[in-house]
Design brief:
The complex is a heterodimer of chains A (223) and B (120). Chain A has 223 residues and is an alpha/beta fold. Helices cover 37% and strands 22% of the residues of chain A. In chain A, strands 4-3-5-2-6-7-8 form a seven-stranded parallel sheet, sandwiched between helices. In chain A, strand 7, helix 7 and strand 8 form a beta-alpha-beta unit. In chain A, 46% of the residues are buried. Chain B is of the alpha+beta class and 120 residues long. In chain B, the strands form two sheets. In chain B, strands 2-1-6 form a three-stranded mixed sheet, covered by helices on one side. A three-stranded antiparallel sheet of chain B has the order 4-3-5, with no helix packed on it. In chain B, a hairpin with a 5-residue loop joins strand 3 and strand 4. Chain B starts with a helix and ends in a 6-residue tail after the last strand. The chains are: A alpha/beta (223), B alpha+beta (120). Chains A and B meet through strand 1, helix 1, helix 6 and helix 7 of A and helix 1, strand 5 and strand 6 of B. Strand 1 of chain A pairs antiparallel with strand 6 of chain B.
Chain lengths: 223, 120
């Protein structure tokens, strides 16, 4: 017997990253702009998606992949009743979607009929950050009542984002929440991050998000 | 659950390199984990013993090299290390920072044993 050291130097997530790359190419070839939407449970992910669909559905064709840990179709049903195609992916108790589950979801959608795909990840601030799905954007919905310390406690998820939505801004008078402290943490982790403070309930701040999104979808179609 | 999926990915990766090297057994794995990569090494070790059980990696020892988060302040060019809390630059209080290291999470190397080649 002889003992040998074999160099590897490969990311643990490399298999997932390769699959994510394939998803990305598939979405590119159909010109479907895609968003991986992450948040903790109760941040308002599904409501945010429904409010977004409501405001863009006459000009943008939206599809949704719903990631859930349990086989309940509550969220997917809401999207379908809003008139948009939705696919439910059960992670079987897993705490995040991975690129392979995303690939299964993509296979169930008619991508030629979509302009925008929103992937609602499992409610969790830790695991989804590590598993790339191959989307064009990663978006985090962070809501005011969760607290202003989230960037400090969960730095990883703030690092890879392209879009940050601060939801439930209408609750700011009722909870301890220092917006400057929150945004300082975000700035350290992800300088210049595109951020939309808004309230799904009152609609305040929503127009800025919709204008930005509409423009990105149009740009992507032309590219 | 997170660490379980991570550990399964780790096993696949280690096995593919071990097979390429025609290993009969994998004895050690050397991992590099950055402070910001939200991986708990104790959990990985815990799952590892179950996940690797029926493979040539069974009983292999995991070695973790922890790397601190190193930030560079864009206001005063100071480089500083973060061990626990995310704080502004200790020199000028600046929050315009870039992260230089601390997000690593990779398998650096494995140690294997090979059946000695038989010469006829």
């Amino acid at each position: 017997m002889s003992s040998i050291r074999v160099p590897v130097v490969e990311k643990i997530f490399s298999a997932n990253d390769r699959m994510a790359q394939q998803n990305h190419q598939l979405l590119d070839s159909h010109k479907v702009l895609s968003i991986n939407l992450m948040a903790s449970p109760g941040a308002g992910k599904t409501t945010f998606i429904l409010e977004t669909i409501k405001r863009v559905q006459d000009k943008i064709r939206v599809g949704v992949i719903e990631g859930d840990t349990a086989p309940v179709t509550i969220d997917a049903d809401k999207i379908i009743s809003a008139g948009m195609p939705a696919v439910q992916i059960n992670t079987g108790g897993d705490c995040h979607l991975d690129a392979s589950m995303m690939s299964d979801g993509l296979a169930q959608l008619d991508l030629s009929q979509l302009d925008l795909l929103i992937v609602e990840n499992v409610g969790n601030l830790i695991c989804p950050a590590a598993w790339d799905l191959g989307t064009h954007f990663k978006l985090l919905v962070s809501s005011v009542p969760e607290g202003d310390d989230k960037p400090y406690k969960y730095p990883n998820i703030f690092r890879g984002l392209e879009i940050l939505v601060i939801n439930k801004t209408d609750l700011q008078p009722y909870v301890e929440y220092n917006m400057d402290y929150f945004r300082q943490g975000v700035e350290m982790l992800n300088p210049g991050l595109v951020t939309f403070p808004l309230s799904c309930r009152t609609g305040e701040g929503f127009d800025q998000w919709i204008n930005w999104l509409t423009e990105k979808v149009a740009q992507f179609k032309k590219s | 659950m997170h660490e379980l999926s991570v550990t399964e990915s780790l096993l696949k990766l280690a096995l593919s390199y071990a097979e390429q090297a025609q290993a009969s057994k994998v004895t050690d794995l050397h991992l590099v984990i950055g402070r910001l990569s939200s991986i708990v090494d104790d959990s990985v070790q815990f799952y590892w013993d179950f996940v690797a059980e029926d493979s040539i990696c069974a009983g292999a020892k995991l070695h973790f090299e922890r790397r601190p988060a190193v930030l560079k302040c864009m206001d005063c060019s100071n480089e500083f290390t973060i061990e626990q809390d995310l704080n502004p630059c200790p020199v000028c209080g600046g929050t315009h920072t870039i992260i230089i290291s601390g997000e690593e999470f990779f398998l650096d190397s494995i140690e294997i044993e090979k059946e000695a080649e038989k010469t006829i």
